[in-house]
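Sharing a chain and its predicted structure for anyone who wants a worked example. Both blocks are below, sequence first, tokens second.
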Amino acid sequence: MVKQSFIAACILAICLVIHITGMVFLGDQLVRRRQRIERQAGPVYTALLLMAVFATLIMLHVTEACLWAAFYVQHGLFQNYETSLYFSLKSYSTVGYGDVLLPEAWRLLGTIEAISGVLLCGLSTAFFFSLVNLLFQFRVRRLGEESDFSRGATRPEPTSREAVRLRADLSAERKPRAGNVGL
């Protein structure tokens, strides 16, 4: 059981590195293109962007399930890769039909794969939800600006009290803090 737990922890760590690296890279690409995304946040562009992000997240999950499957077949736990991948995908997604099972000495791996799959899917869901929320905000802002523009409205200037507060906030940010002297 110790050997199986160690192996599961290693595979889980590799899957975590793959997933986090993929999401950080994807997030970085989205941040770099933020202005373009905000400008083009129409229905078609938004739908295509969401499909691309969804496909990338699915690719990460399938890659991780393939890693588990490669271990299973390499150690002779299943007869072929197709069966290993089938078991891995149903474990990772927590479907768990029970028609294909690991040998009794290795059954702990399927459970650990399921736990990792749930957590990594949750991480992907949170990432995807935050993107959908951001795109919705871009779209609402854009529609509001178009509506204001069509009515000839302009952005109101800040009141003198607001302007004084903004200047004070900006000057406070520029002053070095006592702990930051010489840095």
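Comments welcome. The CA atoms of residues 64 and 173 lie 45 Å apart.
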